[in-house]
Amino acid sequence: MKLALAIQANSSAPKVGIVAGWGSFPIEVAEHCHARGYEVYIAAIKGHADPRLRQFAEAMKWFGVAKLGGQLHFFQHHGVQQVTLAGKLFKDKILFHGLGWIEHLPDLTCLRTLYRSFITRSNDTRDDTILSAVAGAFTNRNIQLLPATDLAPQLMVNDGCLTRRTPNRREMLDIQFGWQIARQMGGLDVGQSITVRDQTVLGVEAVEGTDALIARTGQLCPRGGFTLIKVAKPNQDMRFDVPTIGSRTIENVVKAGGTTIAIEAHRTILVDRDHTLALANRHRIAIIAQINANAEARSMNDAA
Hints:
By secondary structure, this protein is an alpha/beta fold.
């Protein structure tokens, strides 16, 4: 919030840039910034971003995912000095389909920024490694990367049960069991989500993403009743890759037979809040946001 307020204090017509990926998250950020009087400039990623973003933008231009230099030039041309990254990129399709990332014709800036990960292979291709390199490219152009939640803080969830139905004792035991495992997976920068049933880990998110994890869990556990646990990394950089859930998450959990979603309070984004929670309530999916899941689970178990 402090960064966003600083922008307003320094300019009567503040400019904000958004690199927009897939999903409704970029739309909510753009809409909120537009409503607050920001001039919004959007670099929309082809094959990912929603065309509806245009209605909130002073200027919007489409870019291939590997056209980093073009995106930076776009923001510089419009005098944008603060940018946020919003929305999902399908990393598996970018890196491992067809000819891989080279199929996206990276420009010279992209090649220079990521050559250690993709050319010399002296660096790995974990999300933190790639995104830190991209952040450095913005900094080198005197463009500051902001957390999207500084611009649209209402998207962050507070602690508590968000739905009418609360997790039952079995589901709370699964949350208690799985929470630290999910945190350790996040610390390894492998994925942010796991699925659990009867204190057994059914699936772990990797490059395929949360939606694929949920679908795979439905195949492994046709009896249903599993819990999805989604947490931030222990040292989460809030500028990118923040855990996010929305109506699509609920639809996928319902389809796969899940019953509960546990997320981390103050470090998880909830998009399309009203529709998402209404959908969860309709299908009796419990959503609980916790600061310390283990302590909360023990408290609820003792009460039971």
